[in-house]
């Protein structure tokens, strides 16, 4: 039965006495009988109405919570009153709602049985039906339906994975015919094969030398092992592609296997090695120059094992990490992940990317010098494969980008911060507020915008100069920042204008309290090495979604409210009002 809810059963049964008995039996067993019909036409109309109600309520699951759920099981008698028999009822219902079917019938003729089979029922129970057999059949039908649903989900998931993987995938039957090939392999072998790949013998796509290696490897695979070979496959339009083929058995042989549904076969994962071999060829061509470049390069060059030991480093690499010589670095670094990475988890991320792509370009990560100093580096590496098909070592180059990262971080900070006060600037404030409003809309919460204008600040600038004015602004910015939560946004959007964004409000009292505290803080005299200044602030408050639905409208309302507060000497703050009057 379905977890946490009664199973909904719809009965289509010819005969009022047996129908009533069947309803009582089902209800006594805990089932929810949503309808009992003697005619197929009525049953179909009922399901159609349920479907419409379910759709109106946002889907079958939502409808179930309101008592409008579609049936989980359909019990159908073959012989029914009216023009529609039980098989036709099932066919019509299935067009509306995919539901497991159990036939309850006294009909035993082969023609009826064959028609019923085509509707794929979960059970066929001859009347009279005992409560126990009916209960077990319903339970088994629900269980099989859940298994079928899980199987379909798994098939869809794995088919999507197979069709989008970068490697070619080919499945062979026991006679080595191709029974499946994914898009990557079709592309690798040439588009002319599309639509005719599956009937082919896999060996017909292999070059002569590769075909011999294939059968040698196949013998090992069929004895229960795994096999890897390197060779070439023929392209449909001519030429060949260098590949790496990994092979393994799948399934178990069966006497019932056929070409359409083999019970076992061979899985081949095929990797295109064109780029890898091209890189190796280029490397061989410059091998005579490599040593000079290696020794004199200003950037780090290295070779290491996949397990984390250096095989070779150049002088620049040793110098970057604070070692006296390349040999000292090779001897002292026993584990690259723990000794050199600031976070050992980054080493795992790097290796995973390398295994998947065979190379990693411009991987930026924080590492440690010998004395513990943290630096930023940029790695470009590739995996070098051995004759056995495994990675023999990793080689690459490393650049110290610490200074560049510092400049980037400083630029990011400057792009979002006001240089004078350290608060967020006007541009970043608008981005923040826009995101806050979008989040509040999704979650059904409120956001308050406080628009603050300083009173008396112009006199400070005019009388004491801009240096004193800057000092006062920095002090007032600190006072505003100290009166709000760490998660609240505070920005300087103009010369003496500030904005505060308060998210997750319960009601307007929260905004009123913060505005009052900010107003009190701004009124406190400012003193220092120079004169004492008396400055106050006028705070305008607008609330989303009550006062505005976007950044510009909310800013406009908060600005208007600020002017209302400025005109009212009795209060330091005001809420925006559609009547243009301050609301305290």
Question: How would you describe this protein?
Answer:
This protein is of the alpha+beta class and 584 residues long. It has helices spanning 16-28, 40-56, 60-64, 86-96, 110-117, 131-164, 183-189, 208-222, 274-285, 287-296, 315-320, 326-332, 336-340, 344-357, 402-416, 426-443, 457-464, 466-482, 508-523, 551-567, and strands spanning 8-12, 32-37, 73-76, 101-105, 123-126, 168-172, 178-181, 227-234, 240-251, 264-272, 300-304, 310-313, 359-368, 374-385, 391-400, 446-455, 489-492, 497-505, 536-544, 573-575. A five-stranded parallel sheet has the order 2-1-3-4-5, sandwiched between helices.
Overall form: flat
Binned, the helix content reads 40-55%
Q: Give the strand content.
A: 15-25%
- Give the mean pLDDT: 84
According to DSSP, the number of beta strands is 20
Report, as a whole number of angstroms, the end-to-end distance: 60 Å
Largest sheet: 5 strands, parallel
Total helix count? 20
| Strand ordering within the main sheet | 2-1-3-4-5
Structural class call reads alpha+beta
Low-confidence parts: 60-67
> What Rg do the Cα atoms give?
38 Å
Short description:
With 584 residues, the chain is an alpha+beta fold. It has helices at residues 16-28, 40-56, 60-64, 86-96, 110-117, 131-164, 183-189, 208-222, 274-285, 287-296, 315-320, 326-332, 336-340, 344-357, 402-416, 426-443, 457-464, 466-482, 508-523, 551-567; strands at residues 8-12, 32-37, 73-76, 101-105, 123-126, 168-172, 178-181, 227-234, 240-251, 264-272, 300-304, 310-313, 359-368, 374-385, 391-400, 446-455, 489-492, 497-505, 536-544, 573-575.
